[in-house]
Amino acid sequence: MATKVHVGMETEMNGNGRNGVPEIVKNSWKKRLLDFPGKMKRFTGCSWRTIWKAGREDPRRIIHAFKVGLCLTLVSLLYLIEPLFKSFGTSAIWAVMTVVVVLEFTAGATLCKGLNRGLGTVLAGSLAFLINYIATRSESVVRAVFIGAAVFLIGTAATYMRFFPYIKKNYDYGVVIFLLTFNLITVSSYRVENVLKIVHDRFYAISIGCAICLFMSLLVFPIWSGEDLHNSTVGKLEGLAKSIEACVNEYFNDPEIKENQDKSSEDPIYKGYKAVLDSKSIDETLALYASWEPRHSRHCYRFPWQQYVKVGAVLRQFGYTVVALHGCLQTEIQTPRPVRARFKDPCIRLAGEVTKALMELANSIRRRRHCSPEILSDHLHEALQDLDTAIKSQPRLFLGSKKNQTTSNMLALAAAHAARYKQEKDHGVSLASVKTESSAFLEWKRKRVGREEAKENERKALRPQLSKIAITSLEFSEALPFAAFASLLVEIVARLDHVIEEVEELGRIACYKEFNPDDDDISVTCKRPPVDVTKNQLPSHAF
């Protein structure tokens, strides 16, 4: 039986070009070769834009990259210079590894890792040397059993200690280095005679790596975790202030303006409070690293970094209210624009006063001075009073109006729609009697499945319609969304007091200078913090 082949398939199988290569494949490769220069050009441009953006966002990243490169070059000299290599041998690689894992972006992180690594190495080397000293006085079999038992007990105990909250928070990296160094030295001592030389070379190589990292982090363009935490707190206050102002303005703006803003740029409201909601782990990490840093300020005071964490927690609670306020702009049921316009001025004034208070708190933290005594000015209370008066002047919006008849009509319409659907369903239940029993059963089954699908679709379409009719038919449905918006504005004012209290407590503990509108460079009025704040801080470590 002859096999039929389509003309086009036969042509493609035989090939139109030389050596039987299909024309389509040749055209595809030719197109790829022609597009390759353009793709390389686009890739180069995209890479350059990414590199430029990363450096422009934070120029300290470029400095840190050069510092890491310089440190790696310095420790590589232990291998490249012949006299140094004869002194350290292959143990010099530990200096390179130390620089790679220890040198971090901030000085506090480098200190934390460097001191943890140094302490873990010293303890592990000392313990491994002691176990080797005891094991060498035994026979070979007993020595192996003793070393295995020591590795098991020390490994179990050190790993279990990592679950202690205090050790996990401050010394987890040191415990890991302790386990690594102890096992390497202890196990290798069974086959190597001179263990003391191994410990000696490894300790000096790691010490050189840590010393170079600490020198580069503390003395060459240092980047302080405490300053990052301080500046991030200021940025969070300013971001919340901008979010509230943009949210209230957008609520009362024309929808056309809103659409143009959405198309032109990123949502400024979300951008303002996003950093606040995601700040918990960042604040705790920066506070931990800042507690390791030396006192580098002008007056050598130790700032209460844990109080910054408390300020961040209060700001997150404040930010949740801003998120709810932003949600009022995206609800399904909205208050009509003419109704909103009646309350526009007092709401904008109230948001402006809250924004002004948050900006004053941000400036006080930035300049390390106490905030103004008039941060909660009379204008804020006047704005609250004006909003209350405006709401009381529209009692029909909030206390109900003569809409009972309209409500009944709309609900009756929904009920009639549901009854009509049920009646139509009941009329379609009869079966044909002229068909055979089997064909009638199959048709009945098919109609039943079709009716069930129609019933489900009708119910899905009817449910939101009935729900929306019921909601919009409420007497105060026009004012209900605005009532939620106004209550959230008042809640923001109430939570503002907690933010002010925590910022004032921060200024008191950190001994901020007194507020002076004429002179911001006034000297500090106290020499020591008035209270003992050690319980609110992470411990200071010095080795």
UniProtKB/TrEMBL annotation:
The lineage of its organism: Eukaryota, Viridiplantae, Streptophyta, Embryophyta, Tracheophyta. PANTHER family: ALUMINUM-ACTIVATED MALATE TRANSPORTER 10. It is found in: Membrane. It is a multi-pass membrane protein. Pfam families: ALMT. GO terms for biological process: malate transport; monoatomic ion transmembrane transport. The chain crosses the membrane at residues 62-81, 93-111, 141-161, 173-191, 203-224. This is Aluminum-activated malate transporter 12-like protein. Belongs to the aromatic acid exporter (TC 2.A.85) family. Keywords: Ion channel, Ion transport, Membrane, Transmembrane, Transmembrane helix, Transport.
